[in-house]
Amino acid sequence: MSSTAPVVKIPGVADDFFIVKKGGLSQAQAMTAYLGGSMFQTICDNPITAYRQLVQQYAKDLAGKPVDPKIASQEAKAIFRAHPVSASLSGVGPRLVGVGFKRIPKFGVLLGFSFFLGEGENPGFIAATAASILSAPFINPIRMIEKQQRAFYKQSGKQKPIMEILREAAAQRFVPLFRGTIPLMGHSLASALLGLVGQPRLQKYIQAELGDKTSLGRSATGFVASACVSPIYVVVTNPLSRLEVIMQTNSIAGKRITVVEAVKEMATDMTTFGLRGVFRGQGIGIAKAIVSLSLFHEGRHFLQDFFKAYNVKHDLVPDEHK
Length: 322
Description:
Elements: H1 27-57, H2 69-82, H3 84-89, H4 92-101, H5 103-116, H6 125-150, H7 153-156, H8 162-170, H9 181-211, H10 218-248, H11 259-273, H12 275-278, H13 282-313
């Protein structure tokens, strides 16, 4: 027999949000596990994220002319050598705040659809698609601020203060904070389908094929699954990430760059440097994806296991799911 947990009521939140359901977790616990995994990943992978942005941002010089990918990479490395701590931590503040502002809407929609469709804490493709589209307006301002912080290292040698970014955006009624929303939707969809849905399913398959026949544990099979998914993810998202960087690192006070103009800039880059121009940051992107996916899912699994053990210990799991 399972005991009845006291029902917590919050205005605007469904009564069963805190009720333990299929799989031994409540929606609230599943959401907390996803947010905790995201926070763990954000702190650990920030240096790689910052470096990748600079590699893509330095695709053109201060005069607006295309720069060879090798030179852009050297310039990004020079920034990190000159300002190792500042560059590594640049943007981490907005990213951590973004765990709330970005991830709560995204994971809220993702897990809301998932529990509604009976998929529990393991969402499917429909939930991932809905989350990607509906959460984009919440995510984009944080990504814009994060990129603006790093955008002017070459000129100033330091990250741009958040309040200065907000003051510039406020002068235009905060409209600039929504630059890059269209490519973000595509980026977010690929991220959700491959990272939040594809990786866990592939990990289960690898666990069944390798984990049960070898000494590989969940962490190892998760890393293998991330390594398999990441190249596909980066090939799909790298051009979209480039479009975001082009549109979001331009001065807020200056003329905005449209999606069409960003695509034309990428086309010029490709004409000058071939596929190397389009796929700037591809190698570091794959490394980042493997690290990020592995860290996120490890953090998520750790918290889910903790909550499930707590629910079993306190007899909160419905009998048929024990």
